[in-house]
Design goal:
Layout: H1 6-18, H2 32-38, H3 43-55, E1 60-61, H4 62-69, H5 73-85, E2 89-93, E3 101-105, H6 112-115, E4 120-121, E5 124-125, H7 127-144, H8 149-158, H9 168-180, E6 184-187, E7 197-200, H10 210-213, H11 237-244
Antiparallel strand pairs: 1-3, 2-3, 4-5, 6-7
Protein name: DNA-directed RNA polymerase III subunit RPC6
Keywords: DNA-directed RNA polymerase, Nucleus, Transcription
Main location: nucleus
């Protein structure tokens, strides 16, 4: 009886990937280099690796791994060490709790809620960096009189203000804080394709007033501020400076 040819094998693999059946084991081809790294892994290693694949860019605490795999702490620790040695997983520290390690697949980039995004360096909010972007954004709006979000983002890239890759939502958070400080104002839907445009504030407030004196009034990441979150009142650099004053 002849073996199935490569064309038949590929069709079977493609069918399994396209139509997995609930409750039925299916098999999927993996890259050669990944197969080499996984060769010789034990059952516990595979269980931990499977959980970390499901966790994605948000990673997973060792405590959660123990609960999900129902493995003893020593077995989870040994599996993680083995997977790290084979460069299949890596450990990171998030801004939420810099003393505890999270684990994720080695090839993934941590989610924004873990790193704090562009405004954090080594788990610390980089106030100086944020202030530089504020000043540069004001210069852009002052030079052009009217600027859209895309205009400001392009200006920051063209002037090579930073090597950090800024997303549109990052630039928008800078503009929103300037708006809250009454340094600029936003005109809703006045640009092309009903885009918002930003211009210098016509009636700027004094440097210090009720809204800017209170730290939450100018916070660039207030939307992420929750108890035990990536940003919280307990770790807020604005609050510390405010209370020290």
């Amino acid at each position: 009886m002849s073996r199935a040819g490569p064309d038949i094998e590929e069709k079977i693999l493609a069918l399994c990937r396209k139509h997995p059946l609930d409750g039925v084991e299916v098999y999927q081809e993996i890259a050669v280099d990944e197969a080499a790294k996984q060769r010789g892994l034990g059952k516990e290693d595979h269980l931990v690796l499977q959980e970390l694949k499901a966790a994605g860019s948000k990673g997973m605490w060792t405590k959660t791994l123990r609960r999900n795999t129902n493995l003893a702490p020593a077995l989870v620790a040994r599996a993680l060490k083995n997977l790290e040695t084979r460069q299949l997983v890596k450990s990171i520290k998030g801004v939420q709790n810099a003393t505890k390690k999270l684990y994720m697949l080695a090839e993934l980039e941590p989610a924004k809620e873990l790193t704090g995004g562009a405004w954090y360096t080594d788990q610390n909010f980089d106030l100086e960096f944020f202030s530089v972007l504020q000043r540069a954004s004001r210069m852009c709006i002052g030079e052009t009189r009217l600027a859209t979000l895309d205009d400001v983002a392009s200006y920051l890239r063209d002037k090579q203000i930073t090597n950090v890759e800024l997303r549109d939502e990052d630039v928008l958070s800078v503009l929103r804080t300037l708006e809250y400080e009454r340094a600029i104002e936003c005109r809703r839907g006045l640009g092309e394709d009903d885009e918002d445009v930003f211009r210098e504030e016509r009636l700027p407030l004094p440097e210090r007033h009720a809204a800017t004196a209170f730290p939450c009034g100018i916070c660039p990441v207030i939307g992420d501020c929750v108890d035990d979150g990536p940003v919280s009142p307990a770790t807020c650099p604005y609050w510390k400076q405010y209370l020290d004053f």
